[in-house]
Amino acid sequence: MPNYDEAILRSRRLNPNAPFPILHQAVRIALYDEYAARAFYGKVVEAFGPHQPFANIVRAEQRHVDALSRQCERLGIPRPLDPFPLETEIEPTWRANCERAVAGEIANVRLYRYLLPHIGDPQVGNVMLNLQAASLNNHLPAFQEAAAEAMAQERYHAERGIPPQQAYEHHGPLADLVEKALVHLSPHAGPIGLFSPLLRRTTPSMLLGLAAGGAGIYFYRNRLGRKKQEN
Length: 231
Known about the structure:
The chain crosses the membrane at residues 203-220. It comes from Methylomonas rivi. InterPro entries: DUF2202, Ferritin-like, Ferritin-like_SF. The chain has helices at residues 6-11, 22-48, 54-75, 84-87, 94-115, 122-158, 173-185, 196-201, 204-230. The N and C termini lie far apart (87 Å). Helix content is 71%, strand content 0%. The chain is elongated, with a radius of gyration of 25 Å. It contains 9 helices and no strands.
């Protein structure tokens, strides 16, 4: 069953000719938009696991929904029905979802910029200003950073013939940490000098093997040194 103002909600645009007050429309539009973000981020977490920034921001979106829902209750505005859990689809790769999240947060900031001049209720205005600030100052930078990291990770794997869909496979906490370090090092390997060709060709498993071997040699030599000192 669609919402009685479905066209207004879908368009995210106020309609002065509609039989509903502008404040009524604005609060429902904002809540509807937060529903959409909550569903999208939740679906990404379901598909890719509780990784940041989606895992934290989906909880923040729930808080946004709660804040606007309280304004609906205070003003006697019916909350819109939420169709997004059933109709939301996500992108096939982590990077594409990060980029979509960036676009969504930008659109959310613009939506509040559009709605705020029409808000005559101070409490609703403060809530929307706070939600806009959260999107602009917290959510958007987090997704921009995630998108940039995803692009670097895909580039790193593409140089090794690994397709984007496999660029985010997990190999264990230590191997994943090493891989992340290599991803960040690879664009800046030139200044490292003689080691840059090696770094560009090194895989996380290779580096872990080198690290383990180096640690073994270190402890072996350290043990021999202690024995010589004791003798």
